Every structure is written in C-alpha cells, then in structure tokens.
Amino acid sequence: MNLRIETIRECLDGVIPGLIATCDGEGVPNLAYLSQVQFVDNQHVALSYQFFNRTRQNILVNARVRLLTTNPLTAAQYVLTLEYLHTETSGPLFEQMKAKLAGIASHTGMAGVFHLRGADIYRILGIEQLPGPTLTPPPPSLNYLTALRRSTNRLATCASLTSLLDTALDCLESEFALHHVMLLMHDEGRGRLYTLASRGYPESGVGSEIPFGAGVIGICAREKTPIRIGFMTKEYAYGRAIRDSAAADGMADALETAIPLPGLPEARSQLAVPIVAHDRLLGVLYLESVADLHFGYDDEDALVAFAAHLGMAIHYHQQVEELAEELPANDHGKVESSGQPLLVRYFAGSDSIFLDDDYLIKGVAGAILWALLSDFVARRRTSFTNKGLRLDSRIRLPGVSDNLEARLVLLQRRLAERGAGIHLHKTGRGRFALAVDQPLQLLDG
Questions:
Q1: How are the residues of the chain apportioned to helix, strand and coil, as percentages rounded to the nearest 5?
Q2: Among the residues of 180-284, which ranges form H helices?
Q3: Contacts with 133 (C-beta within 8 Å, 6 or more apart), sequence order
Q4: 113: β partners
Q5: pLDDT, tens digit (0-9, with 9 covering 90-100), for 170-194
Q6: How many helical (H) and strand (E) elements, i.e. helices and strands, does the chain have?
Q7: Cα dist. 34→16, 31, 147, 368, 400 in Å?
Q8: In the chain, what is the greatest distance between 2 CA atoms, to the nearest angstrom?
Q9: Rounded to an integer, what distance in angstroms lies between the CA atom of residue 159 and that of residue 144?
Q10: pTM
Q11: Is the Cβ–Cβ distance between 426 and 416 less than 8 Å?
Q12: Which secondary-structure segment (H or E) carries 64?
C-alpha cells in the first residue's frame, strides 16, 4: 500500500459524502452514501452504522467493502478497500463519532433522523487514487509543528501556575490563531468542570460550571478524548441547554448558575481537548469558531499534543507548590483598612460567599475564602500556606486530587473581577498573603 490514510484525512470530514460498495452472499452489489468515516490509526478507519439496511446486511455476510472518498480541496478521489472487523457501541471512539454525526445531521437537515447505532471498525487493505484531473491545494494557513514548538518553549519558561495558564491562552491566540478559548478544570469531588480562564469573550466566565459528561466539554472530560464538531448542533451546545439538563437531573442547586458561561452564541465549529497528566483528567481546553469546519484533523492533533504538554506542566507546578516554604515569623501583610465595613455573608450548605448582596463564589473556593477571612478578622492573620489550607478541616478538600492551586487561582481571579477590595497575592512557593482594603463584617448564614 503506497498511500497512507493519514495523508488523505481531509477526505474523511464529510464535506463530500463517501460512497460504500458492498455485495451480498450471492455477489449482488449494492451502493450507498455514507454519512461519516473516522480516522482511527494508520491501519484502521471507522464507518458510521446508523440503519439496519441493505449495506448492513451485506457487511454481516461479506466483510470486504470498497469506499470512495473525495478530497474537497483538490477533487482527488480515492478508493479504499476495507475489511469489517467489529462494532463499538460505547467508549471514546463511539462518542467522537456520535458528536460529529450530530453536527452533520444538523447541517444536512437530518437532525432527529441520524442516530448512531455503532462505530464499525475496518482494517485498511488498500488505498488507490483514481486517475483524473485535480486542483492545486491551497497553502496551509498554519505550520502546526512551528506553532507547537514555539508554544512548548514558552510554557517551559513559566514560574507559576498563574503564569502558565495565561501563557497557554496567549499561545493559543498568537501561535495557533485561535481567538475563542476556554480552559476548564476538573472538580473531581463535585462532578463538574469550572472555568478558570478564557479569551475572546465579553465576560470571562471565571467560576462558571458545566456538569461532568454534559455537552461537548463534559463528554470530552468523561471519555478523556477530543471531541470535534464541524457544524452547529444544538445537541452538543454547552450553554443554557446544559444547565436546563442539569436542572432536570436535580443538580440545579449544586451547579454554579450565577456566573454566566462565556461562549459564542452561534458557534458552528467546536473542539474540546482533554488536559491529562499521568492518566488523570485535570481539565479541558475548549475552542470554538463561527465558521463551519474550522477545525480539522491537524488542528486536533496539534492541540492534543499542546494539551498533553500543558497537563504535565500544570501537574509540575501543583507538585512544586506542595513544597511550601516556611512562613517567616514576621511575615505580616496589609492589616490597615478604612472606610465603610464590607458585609461578607457565608452560607455553609453550599459554601457560598456574598459580598454585600452580590454573589461571589461557592464550593471549595468559597470555603477557602471564608476560612481566610475568619482568621483575618479573629487574629489579624494575613499570611497562609497551601499546606496549611490542605490540613484545615474547615475547607474539606476532596482528597489528594483536589487541584488546590487551581482553586486559589480561581478565587484570586473572582476577587479581582469583583473589585471589592479583598486581594490574594502569591508571596513565595506555596505561600500567599491576604490584603483587605476596608473593615469586614462577617455574617454566617
């Protein structure tokens, strides 16, 4: 086999539907359009199984099929000779194809008709290019290897988790020309993802939440696999529909709903990539565009590699912060404050914090802030360590995979956005200080 499937993957994105040829047990041929072909690896592809039709019947008695695909950029046509192996009805590959099919169905007016029954796995026996005129392909819009090399070099220079997150989003914008991006972290104990940083939206949405397993982001997290959709589909929207779904599942009270999710109102292309370190999900990178088919296989490959590097870097900074420096005996922060008292209300049931009557945050980050402010008011304490927080029984961190560093970044950013005169400043490895501009009045309940 001279041609390799990874060199013609643009034929598989469904711009021009493929044609599949099968034969029954008597040798009678059948030809049918195919909704979706998915690249699996250099030896295998997966075809969508949607209907128990003639094609399906033939495949079950004769595993050899031929598939015609067309490159939408050059008009070159290829014939793949395939052998059916088995069908998958769940798992990462199935979810990738299910999401992509939902976009294709919506784009072709077949939403509600197309339903993925399974992902049929085929071995590639041969690839031939059909003779005929072709067009010159347009030059690539991006050199992915250069973008990846420059990005990983920049991430390697970051000295803190905060710097790492900001640099990562800078890289996606400047090196990969991606202008609408969110980074969400996994809250393993509460079964959700929370927005820690974003770019390209009027509101940052820092602190907003998405249930684990819901929408394109939640499914990406659950399966730890990239999910790429080339056309708009309501089925995989992540905004209000996701929250409505959470409400229907009885999660409305537990899910953060006061902070609006960022996002494009008319996103037509979506790509969610898991951030994983040592096989543990840390979060999800989410990217979107108003253009159809904005993300291709090359984008997906490059961003999976980028997210893998980012995941290891996040893990490294979290480990470093665990080795907290000891607090100096005279390490005092700002304790002078003046003006009208700021009312801070705490509701223990949800660990929610309100500043005056404005909601600020809930959950673990809310419990952390309440502990810090309580110590400040009672003992004028302003210096803290990550190690001390982890041992503080008032906070109730959910075990070793608590992402404490990310929660402190979240809290720091919510306070900065609120502009209420409460500040958190990093003062060393695993250490930070609290500063308050005005007197505080704490009210529990």
A1: 30, 30, 40
A2: 215-223, 240-248
A3: 75
A4: none
A5: 999 999 999 999 999 998 888 889 9
A6: 10, 20
A7: 10, 10, 35, 53, 47
A8: 91
A9: 25
A10: 0.86
A11: no
A12: strand 64-70
